[in-house]
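fold description:
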Amino acid sequence: MTETVLVTGGTGFVAGWCIVNLLERGYTVRTTLRTLSREPAVRSAVASQTDAGTRLGFCAADLTSDDGWDAAMAGCNYVLHVASPLGTGAEKGRNSLTAPAHDGTLRVLRAATKAGVKRVVMTSAAATARPPLASGKVSDETVWADPDDPQFDAYRVSKIRAERAAWDFMATVDGPAELTTVLPGAVFGPILMRENLGSVDIIQRLLQGNPAAMPQLGFWIVDVRDLAELHVQAMTSPAAAGQRFIAAGDFLWMREIAATLRTDLGHRATKVPTRQLPNFAVKLLLPFMPRLKTLAPLIGRKFQLTSEKARRQLGFSPRPVAETIIDCANSLP
């Protein structure tokens, strides 16, 4: 009998590729949407990669409401909880995204445990395992980030608090359901839909010539296709139960991302910037750069991170980062 997997947030960048991966493996997939009017767009995006046949279904459920979650979970064997509110939240404060992420996660877990699912795999963020920047410690799965640390913006604060709430909730559950969390770095790769792009906005803006001169910012990068594969491995591997897994490949500075685009894309990359702003200039300009303001603590820093646990236990093998960057760029309009 075919097993059924619920993927939350079907319009999302990561969720879309999780749906594709699961369908290619023969699973029946159900996904949640805030409004079912988005169903045709999601079906079209998935169809660009694989034939879903009759194995893809939809249901209406929102992280901010209890409505719909019991029906969404009915008959599901597994859950990939990928949905989360996006945005920096800089204009509304560092805790502005916490409630929907925290409360939404608990809604999903309550419904999942009530329905008797085998395992929930939750998409967290590598930042939830990041120590204080000046500590010199390596980010790994034993580390729990402090949500009050000023290095974190509203999005990362919401991820820290939501993952912590998930583990605390599961510690109270007396039942068969298991939890695994996946902690990705900056997610790039080919898009399926032109919305909810998250980190991909960095590539899009570089192609448009923004910013004209780049700050010294860097990212631990993971390909969305490799991340989807890791979610499925985390869902099925007996060794993954009750574990956290960081998902990241190589670290690239923004100038290196730009250089990759210019080298491989030819005329499409004519607007990609070549200049880098010195750090002192970036700090002077921060009050006038709201997109960058929340990342100010990371200017000029390369913090250490390891995904060795995911590689060793789940066979995580990220593809070359240049392939990820170029495939991402080629998928953008």
The domain at 4-331 is CATH 3.40.50.720 (Rossmann fold). The chain has one domain: 4-331. The chain has twelve helices and twelve strands. The mean pLDDT is 93.
